[in-house]
Design goal:
2 copies of one chain form a homodimer. Chain A is built from 6 helices and 27 strands. By secondary structure, chain A is an alpha+beta fold. In chain A, α5 packs antiparallel against α6. Chain A is elongated, with a radius of gyration of 25 Å.
């Protein structure tokens, strides 16, 4: 194996590859990047068993002298290419033992691994894609993934459920305490029903960041493959049936209060500074309960009481209200903060049923987005 | 106590105060900020026993209705003022139990502590300052403090030694493996000899960042007080005599090699990617040994060998050389990287004695700066 390539092209592809590269692995070969050079093209592959990434390069800067394949220590290879300053790098395999990297007056030799030991990564075949604009696909992820469960107690809840029916793609996430749901109208495509791990979606968001053309989605029984540019990003799917969440979202809201989103968000953030903190079981996130009340004069108060530190109180002026009765409700400020941040709208509404029942956040411009939050009993 | 003030003015002063505020303290009262309002002025104080900060405000936005003093929970107070959006905030003490903060439609009540419990902070009296331009004082710190010891085994080495004699202020730091020394010519001032803890200097650098006027230094037997704007920043000094380092720096260098600093720095950073890593005892920093060799043709090579990963090799073209004999020397790449970063010069020289003896880095434009590095024996 011997080839030269523009360093920036190589690095750009390695940045994609790094998303699938584990820093440690029970299979040491997976800490390596598989490099394969044909007569005309360069392929690189990484896999951490959940995520596999492959990039295909036939850039005009690629000058192949000798085809071949190898597996190089992943992190070291990426670090060296990142730190190199030259326009071009030369890579060559010496006696199938050493990969030599030459750039300007530097020479780096990496002990390689046997490409025969690298597991065969079975990518979904590239037939019949669902084509989505990258930005819309990223939005589906961004507006739901934060509401997935981080605990593994109910593994299926650690993923986002994507469900296509009647030309509507629905994305849902819930950790049993709050739920995010959004939808996207799409062209004719066969129905499907998959749950994608939240970590894979986080990596996918990073990989697609700034990319605004179409992405191509391919499905198999247990995998999702996303293709864009010269990159294949594949993730395993979560096993099991996602719970039916369609019944959880109330449809009748006797109390509707509208706010400027930023005003509400900032008031909630300020009040939550003083709310008592507890660690949720199984996760290292502090959560904090605040109280929202609407009196018969339709003034809205957000408040909290902290026995050791003090009290916080904010009055908000709604942009519009429609209330059947006064209301006092307690909930995690973090859930409302994260829900509010998912909206692109300037104006949002809080929609309450009566009593201690889930409430819903909607945005005037985010027609398909629904954020549902379970209140807690206030003592 | 009751006053109003422009929120930005208050926050700016709290940012200074936060540098002296411990998050935890064996003396809980010190997690509070002492606030004192006279008929005309506002004073705030924080102290973590090593560092004490006091700011004095008589800004035109300050409207005092009632003098008084209190101690408020520090972090909460700062967080609230930081998150508030209004132009003005009102603070008032209710029955000496609660501090009420009002801003727009928000009201925050903090349980206060008894100001009589707050220890008396003894600031050095403001007589006879040594006046230095802030930028030059920051440079003295920046070019030396990284070379202090982080281990407490020899406590005196965890500080930078400042020593004034014959109108030259010398700053020295060493962790026994490398040494940084720089000097500043100053006007007439009485000789002194102090060692300032590295953590205090790190905080002081942050506090003075972006401030380019004069700072005023005041000394007592065991304290240094730095005054700038309306801020007093005081640190305790380290006890004990700083070792005499004047004999450690060689004066004869039979081998001198000059480089463009950035070229040398980048080559060392790249080679160090592959150098074997060990954890230094007592600190969580990995260090790594690289080899520098100069052959009789005056070509310079930097290299390392890593049994598990591979080898790195860089050839450098010096801008000038004067060598009496070939040289092979091993040292910690981190020490050379940190030393090189301390120079403002475009061109630097490495100055070697013969054999395994300390070598010195100098910069063409940094006349007074000397970085000394102890090599290690190469096997």
């Amino acid at each position: 194996m011997e080839f030269k390539i523009d360093r920036e092209i190589l690095l750009e592809n390695l940045n994609y590859i790094s998303r699938g590269l584990p820093s440690k692995s029970p299979m040491p070969i997976l800490t390596g990047i598989k490099i394969e050079v044909t007569d005309t093209d360069l392929y690189m592959t990484s896999s951490n068993t959940d995520i596999s990434v492959e990039t295909f390069v036939n850039d005009s800067s690629l000058l192949i002298t000798k085809p071949g394949k190898t597996v190089v220590p992943g992190r070291f290879f990426i670090d060296i290419i990142r730190k190199i300053n030259s326009k071009q790098v030369s890579l060559s395999l010496v006696e199938d033992k050493i990969l030599t990297i030459r750039a300007d007056r530097g020479e780096y030799k990496l002990h390689i691994m046997d490409p025969l030991d690298y597991p065969n990564i079975d990518f979904v075949s590239l037939n019949n894609p669902l084509i989505l604009p990258s930005e819309k696909f990223r939005n589906l992820i961004r507006q739901t993934v934060f509401a997935t469960a981080s605990s593994e107690k109910k593994p299926i809840l650690t993923g986002v459920h994507f469900h296509l029916q009647d030309q509507v793609l629905t994305a849902v996430a819930t950790d049993s305490f709050r739920l995010s749901q959004t939808k996207l109208e799409i062209d004719e495509y066969a129905p499907f029903d998959i749950t994608v791990p939240n970590k894979s979606l986080d990596e996918l968001s990073k990989v697609l960041d700034g990319y605004n053309e179409n992405v191509f989605l391919y499905f198999s029984v247990n995998k999702l493959l996303v293709k864009f540019k010269n990159v294949l990003f594949q993730t395993r799917l979560l096993d099991g049936n996602y719970p039916d969440t369609s019944k959880l979202i109330p449809s009748e809201f006797p109390i509707v209060v509208k706010f400027y989103k930023d005003e509400l968000l900032e008031a909630v953030e300020r009040v939550s500074l003083l709310s008592p903190r507890d660690k949720e079981r199984d996760r290292e996130i502090t959560y904090s309960i605040i109280k929202l009340s609407i009196d018969k004069n339709r003034s809205v108060h957000i408040s909290t009481t902290n026995a050791t530190i003090g009290d916080a109180f904010e009055e908000l002026i709604p942009t519009d209200t429609s209330i059947a009765s006064p209301l006092v409700i307690g909930f995690s400020s973090r859930y409302l903060i994260e829900a509010l941040r998912s909206f692109d709208s300037t104006e949002v509404s809080l929609n309450f049923s009566e009593g201690v029942r889930p409430f819903v956040v909607k945005g005037e411009k985010d027609y398909y987005l629904t954020q549902l939050i379970l209140p807690v009993r206030m003592d």
